[in-house]
Amino acid sequence: MYRLLLITVILTTAVSCNPFKSDHPQASLSDENKTTGLTAPSILRYADSVDKMLNQLPKSQSLVYMLGDLSFYVEKYGTTLFVERAYNGAESNSLKKYYFRNDSLMLFKSSQELANEEGTVFKDERVYMRNHTVFKKDSRTAVSASALKSLAFIDVPLTDNVSPDKIYLNDVEALQQALDGVGKFDMIFESISTYPDSRYITLRNKDQNGYAASVLVKERDSFIDSLLNYPMLFKDKKLNFKWEVVDGEAVYVPVSGN
What we know:
alpha+beta
């Protein structure tokens, strides 16, 4: 009986020392409530796993905001990822991603296309964060998108005063305001165009020289008829309607689809 009990204890100890190891990309990360053990490779694996499951996450989109030659819009996937897509005429365009885990910002990724007198420059940048502090940066630069993908990332030296994640969190706060349509992104009705081939709802911020937005109307409904027939009743008022961003343009969703 004693020998049987001893064998049972040994087997139980062996099993507890070799727990089941999941092959899920997020399994290599540290405990869900801690970020101390995070490394750059484990953060990248987590980001890849998020990218693969975007279709399963709830998605929200902002209007397409314009200021001068700049236009941009924001996408949010659950509480895990913020995406900003920005275009500045023929000079540049950028794609920025902010990856979160348990409300902690872990990774910032940026892809930029910059035009100058000598041609176009393509640049990727990654910023890794742990315990609310940037612990690693890397980047790569090339003269074409295809050449960029073939290059390895090179570490960027950190300054002596290691920057906190607050810098990037401030950016995320502005992106959330763009999604919510508040502050400088609070839009009121300006006008609705009556071109034969297309109609646009034009919105603007109350501040002079602030952001503006336009929404393409493909299908008329009772709400659009009201805007067309009685625009002055809605002038400078906040409108309540839905839209979706298609190919970088906000498109009105008819009432029947709301």
